Amino acid sequence: MFQSLKSILKKTTDGISQAIGTKKKLISQNELENALIESDISYDLIEMMLKNLPQEVSKNELEVALWRFFRAESYYDKLQYTPLQDKPEVMLIIGVNGAGKTTTIAKLAHLAKKQGKKVILGAGDTFRAAAIEQLKLWGEKLGIEVISSQIGHDPSSIAFDSIKAGLARGADQIIIDTAGRLHNQTNLKNELIKISKVCSKALDEKPFHKLLILDGTQGSSAITQAKIFNEILNVDGIIVTKLDSTSKGGAILSMIYELKLPIAYIGTGEKEDNLLPFNEEEYIQSILEAIFG
Ligand SMILES: Nc1nc2c(ncn2[C@@H]2O[C@H](COP(=O)(O)OP(=O)(O)OP(=O)(O)O)[C@@H](O)[C@H]2O)c(=O)[nH]1
Ligand SMILES: [Mg+2]
After folding, report:
1. CB of 244 sitting under 6 A from ligand 1
2. What pLDDT is recorded for position 73?
3. In angstroms, what is the span from residue 243 Cα to ligand 2's centroid?
4. For residue 195, what are the domain limits?
5. Cβ(126) – ligand 1 distance below 6 Å
6. Is 284 contained in some domain?
7. Together in a domain, 52 and 113
8. Phi, psi at residue 253, to the nearest 5°?
């Protein structure tokens, strides 16, 4: 079933509406600030957005400010996520524990399969047995081959085998899962760098995408993690999950502002269908409607 971004953001927009109280044509900067803080947009960003606005802000003025923010020339190009056009399209999925990596892989695979593409999944989270099983279960459910090995096995070799298997089978898309533990950052860093190098090698140095999964319920605090991942591997795009179950959907603006990375998709639930391409226009309109009606 098709879900609209507006319905997904309902918890966020309800929070904003409540903070505003009665809707009117002009909203004071103070009221606006409170409402935007409520949605977990970072304070720095709110200050920056409001700086050039009058004391009493109209819908049109805020809309222009939001668009200017999204379309700022310096990072306009980067904000559009363009899927890799290569065949196979290889995606390495990274992010902290529980962010929604494995579930998002299932969603991406399902979407590709619906488009008639052949997909191969790589169970590169060899840290937990349950993680391998989880991806295999998705594979069975969706009718998609999963390349896996035993717990404790080198994740780089799974990534390598998955890419080689995908190439041999003429796959259109290869999606590789990774472990997300952050308790030992040096370890994580080394492992991610190694996996990334091995992916390049398996692809004869052709490009692949590193997609970062961020838990939308963490709001602005997901940004600190994201910066660490982006420093380790240059991230190509972000997928924000669990936007259906949070009032912190304003953090998307902070993510774009702080990370200057495009948001490719958003996760809207736990099922394979619950993935939407990120549409900035719909996003802006949802926020404006919550404030001004
Ligand atoms: N409501 C909601 N739940 C989600 C979404 N995406 C993932 N989840 C749930 O979040 C939990 C964690 O998801 P996983 O996909 O296992 O996360 P992970 O990043 O692979 O976690 P680790 O393998 O432990 O690193 C699961 O219960 C998922 O069903 C989403 O978009 N919306
Ligand atoms: Mg996982």
Report:
1. yes
2. 52
3. 18
4. 83-279
5. no
6. no
7. no
8. -65, -45
Mark whether 169 and 258 lie in a shared domain. yes
- Is residue 246 lining ligand 1, measured as CB closer than 6 Å? no
Quick check: is 290 in a domain?
A: no
23 and 157 housed in the same domain: no
What token pair was written down for 196? 């990334």
Model pTM above 0.85: yes
| Domain CATH number, residue 29 | 1.10.238
Is residue 287 situated within a structural domain? no
* Dihedral angle of Cα 11, 14, 15, 17, to the nearest 10 degrees: 160
Q: Considering the domain boundaries, does residue 70 fall inside one?
A: yes
**Angle CA 49–279–28, to nearest 5:** 30
Residues 40 and 161 in one domain: no
The minimum-distance atom of ligand 1 relative to the CA of 267 is: 31
Along the 293 residues of the chain, how does pLDDT read in single tens digits? 457 889 999 999 999 999 998 888 999 999 999 999 999 998 888 998 898 899 999 999 999 888 877 776 554 454 678 999 999 999 999 999 899 999 999 999 999 999 999 999 999 999 888 999 999 999 999 999 999 998 889 999 999 999 999 999 999 999 999 998 755 678 888 999 999 999 999 999 999 999 999 999 998 888 988 998 999 999 999 999 999 999 999 999 888 888 888 899 999 999 999 999 998 889 999 999 999 98
Q: Are residues 95 and 157 in the same domain?
A: yes
Ligand 1 and 270: CB distance under 6 A: yes
**CA of 177 relative to ligand 2 center, distance in Å:** 7
Same domain, 255 and 123: yes
R_g over Cα of the chain: 20
One domain, residues 33 and 159: no
> Measured from the CB, is residue 3 less than 6 Å from ligand 1?
no
Instruction: Return the number of other C-beta atoms located less than 10 Å from residue 151's C-beta.
Output: 14
Secondary structure of residue 1 in the 3-state scheme = coil
Alpha-carbon span 69 to 75, nearest angstrom: 10
